[in-house]
C-alpha cells in the first residue's frame, strides 16, 4: 500500500535529520526558492519553509499530493505550490535556487533518480543547486546463508517435483533484505560506482570491485547500498555498518556458492541501466574467483532472466 510506504518513510528519523541539516545548509547559503521533485506528502518542503525558504513548488503525479495539501493546511504552512505532474512532464518550470529530489530506492537507481536529476537542471536558476548532488554505490560479499535458505525454501515441497528451473529464475533477481555486518565477509566495502549528479552522466552504469582473500570461506552473494551527498558535509547512507533507515540493502545471489581459499581473489562486476521515470531496470552481475593469476570460476546472473512474462 502506498500510504504504508509513506508511513515508514515518515518514521525515518535518520532520513529526516539528514535532509533537515542539508536544507538548513543550502537555505543558509542563500537558497530561497525550492522545487521538490517527487514531493510525496510534502515533508521536505515543509522543512524548507520552516527553515526560511520563501516558496516551494511540489511536483508529484500521485494522489498523495492531495494529502500533502491537507497536511500543509493543518500545519498552517503557506508559500507552497502543488503541481500534480511528474517533473519530467513539466513545461517551463519556474526557476528555483534549490532542487530537492528524494527519489531513491533500496537500490539507489531503481526509482529513476538519474533521469530525474539529469532533467532537474532545467528547473534551476543561475547558480542553483541540486540535492542530492552525488551518489556512491557500495558492495561487500555476503557469507551468511540465511538469505539462501529463503531462496531455496520451495525445495521442501516434495511430492517428487523437480523445481530446479524455478530456483534458476529466482537467483537471477535482486532482493531487499536488512543485511547486518555479521552477514558480510570480513573485507572492506568497495565502491563500484559514483555519480556526480551536477555534471553529465549516463543512466547506464558499470563498475567492478576486487578483494584479496586472506582466509578460506564461502560467499553466497553480494550486498549493495548507497551514499547520497545532500550538502557539503551532509551524507545520507544506507550502509549496514551505519544507523538503520527505512531503506534496506540489496542482496544479489550467486547461482552457486563460491568456496574460496586463502590467497584467492574475488572480483565483482555490475552493469545496470534504468528507464525513464520508474520505467524499470536492467541489471547483470558477474562474480569471478581468481587463483594464481587465473580464473578458477566465473558466473553471471541477469535480472532479465529473473522475469516470467
Describe this structure in words.
The protein is α/β, with parallel strands linked by helices. Helices cover 21% and strands 38% of the residues. Strands 6, 7, 8, 10, 11 and 12 form a 6-stranded antiparallel sheet that branches. Strands 3-2-1-4-5 form a 5-stranded parallel sheet, with helices on both faces. Strand 1 (33-37), helix 3 (43-50) and strand 2 form a beta-alpha-beta unit. It is elongated. The mean pLDDT is 93.
Features:
single chain; 309 residues; alpha/beta; six-stranded antiparallel beta sheet; five-stranded parallel beta sheet; 7 helices; 38% strand; elongated
- What is the string of helix and strand elements? HHEHEHEEHEEHHEEEEEEEEE
Tally of alpha and pi helices: 7
Helix content: 10-25%
Strand content: 35-45%
Q: Rg, please?
A: 22 Å
- General shape: elongated
Mean pLDDT: 93
Overall number of strands: 15
In short:
By secondary structure, the protein is α/β, with parallel strands linked by helices. The protein has helices spanning 2-10, 13-28, 43-50, 64-74, 113-120, 146-151, 164-171, and strands spanning 33-37, 55-59, 80-83, 96-101, 124-131, 134-142, 175-177, 190-196, 204-212, 217-231, 234-237, 249-260, 265-274, 281-291, 294-302.
Amino acid at each position: 500500500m502506498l500510504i504504508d510506504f509513506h508511513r515508514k518513510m515518515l518514521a525515518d528519523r535518520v532520513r529526516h535529520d539528514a535532509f533537515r541539516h542539508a536544507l538548513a545548509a543550502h537555505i543558509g547559503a542563500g537558497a530561497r526558492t525550492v522545487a521538490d521533485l517527487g514531493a510525496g506528502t510534502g515533508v521536505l518542503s515543509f522543512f524548507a519553509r520552516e527553515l526560511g525558504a520563501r516558496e516551494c513548488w511540489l511536483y508529484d503525479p500521485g494522489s498523495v499530493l492531495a494529502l500533502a495539501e491537507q497536511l500543509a493546511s493543518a500545519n498552517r504552512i503557506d508559500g507552497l505550490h502543488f503541481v500534480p505532474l511528474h517533473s519530467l512532464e513539466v513545461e517551463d518550470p519556474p526557476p528555483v535556487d534549490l532542487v530537492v529530489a528524494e527519489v531513491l530506492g533500496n537500490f539507489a537507481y531503481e526509482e529513476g533518480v538519474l533521469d530525474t536529476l539529469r532533467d532537474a537542471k532545467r528547473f534551476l536558476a543561475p547558480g542553483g543547486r541540486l540535492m542530492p548532488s552525488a551518489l556512491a554505490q557500495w558492495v561487500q560479499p555476503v557469507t551468511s546463508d540465511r538469505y539462501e535458505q529463503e531462496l531455496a525454501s520451495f525445495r521442501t515441497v516434495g511430492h517428487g517435483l523437480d523445481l530446479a528451473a524455478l530456483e534458476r529464475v529466482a537467483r537471477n533477481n535482486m532482493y531487499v533484505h536488512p543485511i547486518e555486518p555479521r552477514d558480510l565477509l570480513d573485507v572492506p566495502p568497495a565502491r563500484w560506482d559514483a555519480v556526480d549528479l551536477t555534471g553529465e552522466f549516463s543512466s547506464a552504469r558499470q563498475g567492478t570491485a576486487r578483494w584479496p582473500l586472506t582466509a578460506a570461506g564461502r560467499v553466497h552473494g553480494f550486498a549493495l547500498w548507497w551514499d547520497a551527498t545532500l550538502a557539503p558535509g551532509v551524507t545520507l547512507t544506507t550502509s549496514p555498518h551505519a544507523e538503520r533507515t527505512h531503506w534496506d540493502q540489496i542482496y544479489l545471489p550467486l547461482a552457486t556458492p563460491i568456496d574460496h581459499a586463502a590467497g584467492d581473489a574475488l572480483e565483482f562486476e555490475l552493469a545496470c541501466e534504468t528507464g525513464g521515470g520508474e520505467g524499470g531496470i536492467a541489471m547483470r552481475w558477474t562474480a569471478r574467483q581468481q587463483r594464481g593469476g587465473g580464473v578458477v570460476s566465473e558466473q553471471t546472473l541477469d535480472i532479465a532472466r529473473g522475469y516470467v512474462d
